[in-house]
Amino acid sequence: MKKLQHFFVILFEFLTSKRISRYIVTIAVCVASMVAVGTIVPDLWMDVIGIFFGFLISNLTVGLFAVFFSSFEDGLKVLDDTKKILSIYPEDNLETVVTLNGTSCTVAYNPVLFNDNYTLIVKDDPEKQFELDGFLENNYLDLFAAHHRSSKRNFDTVRLDDCTLEGNTATFYLSRSTYYHHLITNRAVDYLLDDDLSVRTYFDYGPKLVPLNKSKMSNHVGINGLVYLKDGELLLPRRTGSSTISKNMITSSIAIMLSLPKSGEVTSEYLFKDCILNNLVSRARMNPAWIKEDEIDVQFLGCGQNPYEGGKPQFYYAVRMNNVTREDYLRHLAAGAKMDAVIDKDKYMYVVDPSTMCFTKNENLQFIHNHGRLDKKGALKVKAHKTVVNYEKSFLCNVWHKQIAWGEIPRPQL
Length: 414
Hints:
With 414 residues, this protein is an alpha+beta fold. Helix content is 30%, strand content 28%. The strands form four sheets. A five-stranded mixed sheet has the order 3-10-11-7-9, with helices on both faces. Strands 8, 12, 13, 14 and 15 form a five-stranded antiparallel sheet that branches. Strands 4-6-5 form a three-stranded mixed sheet.
């Protein structure tokens, strides 16, 4: 009896889910039923065919609209309009101009630290848990529904409670939250619960951005790293259409949340180096044999708040792979290098010549990238392509931090 009940529970969950497999199975069952009816009662065969095509066309149409409108989901959850963001926080100097090869674009960003050889201290409290405000608890289900078309699962995250600067010492205070808390705070900050009611208008309405130590957001630590090959090429991944944010956009080479180490406690070594080294294979699609610390330079550039996502903290890095050439990497990709099945998965990796990167008139990103394939004899054939794509705002902040750290532009005052 229990097995039968368990079967019906699983069946109910499957039939009420929104997975693609559910629609495929449902359509297959309906088609099989119609074929069976048409076989038993031949006179009804033409009617069965008509019903089938009507059913198929209607389902395809509904599915097409669902896929089409899912691309607009991000805009309902997080405000992407830089001018509007700047107008909400007029008392902060959030206007940041990023220049690429004679072209420029403006993003909203609140820098907290430029790493000018600071002594970096991490104070992690694994037992401290982020507590949701009552407003967020009461609207949990509505805010969670904002991610209808996004892949999601729950797990522990690392929250940045505060960052303090005293002399030449920077101290980072960390605690814990969950990914679901992140989805209903930072990742749904502009989702309208009523006419003009959203998480932003309730908690972070301006005229200044709420600082980290007073924030009601989940604020897990975002990790963004630009990975450069030995020849100078930059790796730029492109997200899938089911990621929780930045669907089909370019991001930094490594654009992830800070995951928990096996020890369960975040150290300075882990936060400022190992978290990058650990993701070169899973996110940047490197060959594990290339991960040799003495041949890889990891540079922590600085950190700041992303006002688009309610002041979410972002940490920025630059990585030089001194032992991997463009040919090495392209051959590795062409041989079928895959990335791990993770949240916010990437569908493609561009190997980009940074000197070709520029902004178009409508502020998309244009660049020349190299694509490699192996012929029947195993020889690598490389072809250059020009691509124009949209990008995650945090990627531009990563570029901006790199340009400051590498002396390409002046360092602004905080």
